[in-house]
Amino acid sequence: MKKIGLLSGILATSLLFAACSDDGAEGAGEIEEGKPYVAVVSKGFQHQFWQAVKKGAEEAAEEFDVSITFEGPESESQVDKQIEMLQAALDKKPDAIGFAALDSKAASPLLSEADGKDIPIIAFDSGVDSEIPLATASTDNRAAAALAADKMAEAIGEEGKIALIVHDQTSVTGTDRRDGFKEQIESKYPNIEIVDIQYGAGDHLKSTDAAKAVMQAHPDLKGIFGSNEGSAIGVVNAVNELNKKGKITIIGFDSGKQQLDAIKDGVMTGAVTQNPVGIGYETVKAAVEALDGKELDKVIDTGFYWYDKNNIDDEEIQAAVYQ
Amino acid sequence: MNIDTVVNEEKKKLGNSRIPSGAIQQILAFASLIALIIFFSLASGSFLQYSNIIGILLSTAVIGILALGATFVIITGGIDLSVGTVMTLSSVMIGVIVVDGGMPIWVGIVGGILTGALCGLLSGFAIAKLNIPPFIATLAMMMIAKGLALVISSAAPIYFSDHPSFTKISLGSITPGIEVPNAILIFFIMAIIGGIILSKTILGRYNFAIGSNEEATKLSGVNVNFWKMSIYTLAGAFTGVAGVLMAARLNSAQPALGQGYELEAIAAVVIGGTSLSGGKGTIVGTVIGALIMSVLTNGLRIMSIPQEWQTVVVGLVIILAVYADTLRKKD
Amino acid sequence: MNPVLLSMKNISKSFPGVKALSNVDLELKHGEVLALVGENGAGKSTMMKILNGIYTKDEGEILLEGKEVNIENINQAQELGISIIHQELNLMRDLTVAENIFIGREPRSAFNFFLKDRELNKKTADLFKRLNIELDPHTKVADLTIAKQQMVEIAKALSFNSKIIIMDEPTTALTETEIDSLFVTIESLRADGVGVIYISHRMDELKRITDRITVMRDGTYIDTLVTKDTEMSKIIQLMVGRQVYIESKPTSINENQETILRLENVSTKDHLKNVSFELKKGEILGFAGLMGAGRTEVARAIFGADKIESGSIFLNDQEVKIKSPKQAVEMGIGYVSEDRKHLGLLIDMDVKTNMAMATIKNFTKGNFVVSQKEMEKVAEKYVDELKIKTPSVHQKIRNLSGGNQQKVVIAKWLLRNCDILIFDEPTRGIDVGAKGEIYKLIDELADSGMAVIMISSELPEVLRMSHRVIVMSEGRITGELTSAEATQEKIMEYATAVN
Q1: pTM: predicted TM-score of the whole model, two decimal places
Q2: For C269, how many CA atoms within 13 A lie in the half-sphere containing its CB?
Q3: C140 and B21 in contact by Cβ < 8 A?
Q4: CB contact, 8 Å: B6 with chain C?
Q5: Would B129 be classed as within a structural domain?
Q6: Is A6 an interface residue toward B (CB < 8 Å)?
Q7: Fewest CB within 10 angstroms: A19, A139, B257, C295, which?
Q8: pLDDT tens-digit series, residues C202-226
Q9: What value of ipTM does the predicted structure carry?
Q10: What is the CATH number of domain A10-139+275-303?
């Protein structure tokens, strides 16, 4: 009995802690009486990218005086968890919903339910494959990756061997960026050969080892594209560890402090960034406009930017990248 | 009169001719490692280059040290599922201490290792004193560590850019003449420390005793609970060291990483011939097991085998290794 | 007479829901070997665990050499010079002999943390020299025979300079010669004034080695008798508290009974070589032989568990191919395995389910819904017929004694209407009283026309039960004896015959 008491005590204390910490991991906004409430269910939570989306959403909430909640599953494979979150969000009777589907079909019954209750739905990021959302705020990943391919070609003089370190072989962002990059190279730059595509799960360490192996296997490699933050940092680490700085062109994706530093140091040529803050912002903004009865464009392109040493300090870039 | 008389006489004769248990599996694992190295050297000219060998060893360091700690736990017949996320928590703790707290790097390192040890102690407490099965207790610890890593880092990576010397812990080199990254050195030093603890100390002795027959160990008057907690704490400290190396190599503490590493560590331990049912295992075996894992991954990558198939091959190797172990037990 | 070394008075102990011991007395003198006997569950182990500090007593007192002692844990018991050698050997199989003996007392160096294994091995070697034991301290226990493992346990107990050594069924796994050498060791302990508490079911051993016998039953003290003045049947009677079935077999069965099973030159890949024999209805055919002689393999071949390479099996004069246990069962062959707990029973399920398990289809409606009522009715009938001691058919098997568990297995096969029932070590791990009941049951089955094959390593059991005895050695049948011809000596002669 003593042990039960002790355990309960620990549990109670930690609950207290969790409740008191305003910026604790799950303390993602709260519903305030009187204001319109927008529930945002994203595809992730703990990664920098999603934190930036959250930031944009919060900025919009502040600006338009609505209250929001922001949550997402731990990994992009947890379709079921996301459905539960969407269900929970619906149960809270929100005025509008922002949603980035991991699996559109799995979510469709709930979306219909929301539609039946006249709750406007705004899709974001990779969007929702359905007619129900009034609008989708997203990045065109293929186009963004194609831009990265152009920059790669430019940097290596439109010829030579390159490789890709991709974060995922099943998710839409992973395949879109891989294919967008690949197709651009294949169609426009016949003298460039993609010799290898490896996957590092977006894990910095695994991506590092994968990139090193690729560089070992192809000593004459001229460039590597890392398809998200973890992958790109992995490539940077690999180049640093093998002392190949300057010999290998690195093109990255997304941002984060280490990528920004690598670009400033010249290890990385540059990267394509989405506009995660913009995605969050546009999503909430669109939700507010829907509540006000305004007409919305079906697609809100939140844009993407190329940034390198030269423009990294531009206001436009600084607004889009996260540290 | 009992009829078993003659049989037992027979068994006695057989008993003496048996090859010491354990040795075969290790020889087998070592032979597999050599075979893999030969195979990959023939398949790709880039494989046996110095820089690639260093690369393989470097990629072994983190998982390898996790596996060293896990070896102790698995020899007790237990399991530790929390090593991946506890490693992450340790590396985040270093970030909090050094970057956010502005303390010297060595304080951060000690703090990171202690964080790992503390998590191990808590798991050990839950297992020994609260009688929670290791699988469940460490599963809970895995979640707790994961959550805490996000909480104390505010779900954002912590960078050591302002502490350029920190990354030297992993990537610097103190060996004169040839350049061997410190992480590799630390891995082998940890292996030697682990080997000494396992074979030369009272903790190692009770480690085997508990795994061999916990009840009998208890009946011999050994404070099994105390030693179990010590073993989990020790494994936690090893995990903390892995956290230091991880953070130093990435020059950052990534709160979202780490999950899944525990399974790779367990796989390395098992390939190295440590029995999941406890009582048997060696540090040398685990080092070989970890090397097999990273040689395999590196070699397959160098051969540009698609990632999907790499995973399949690693899975098959685990089955093969454990099957070889059961064959040995049958004899 | 020697002075009293230990006396336990009015010891009581309860576990939740059970009174394990009530007011039990026990007295042990210097240099005495005291037998402690009783059926399984009589409270012997509980009593010994209290003496050894594993359990604490609720009431009563323990006097060691006249002084009251309080034993709260194992370490304390060891310090007082009380050691126990458990029936299930309590050794760490993956550790060496020396490591086992000095576990918890290892010679240490720096910080009390590092081991001094050279000293450990030397200490062990010295101990062995003193005790005249021939063992290498470096050997792993897993590589030792059971008998040698037992020697390790004894050496461990003696390394504490114990005054009292408790031996719980020490000879179950020992050979004749090993038992002899154990008894030599016990004699020398006796000469040194050590008191030995000897727990055993084997009456002949008690007669040989013990001075007095204390009998327990159902958690109470019954009596203490001087061994040399006591008939063993008296002891058994006191233990079980009822008359034991010891009537011996009718010598033969009616020659006119028809043959139900015939094997002709059956060989299997690894074990059996040209095995041929006949089994008649109503016959109990004993299979004797050493462990590994191929007796169980014969059963497995008949039961379709092992593949037959050559030879034929005839059932009622029809040649049959039995490819799986399922087929064997359909042909009316039942197999009561020696490993009840793993192969015969679902230990955590109740009596009725276990009985019905093999014939569950008969208890279903529309082949799906199980009728509990029907199951209950049938189970109650068998509980009654086989005299299974259980509070109800809803009792979990785990809570039944070994003998009653075995009866449940038999009931399971009876439900399937078997013509042939193969028993593999039917009374292993069952105490004396219950053995008699199992024997009686098997006799009754045979009398009712069932053909029985009984594999047993206990020669008295084979002699008492079998109409005929087949002896095997190295996969061959080396001899066949009628019950009139069969003696222990003859059986052993055939069993050790090579080719």
Answers
A1: 0.73
A2: 3
A3: yes
A4: yes
A5: yes
A6: no
A7: A19
A8: 777 888 899 999 999 888 899 999 9
A9: 0.79
A10: 3.40.50.2300
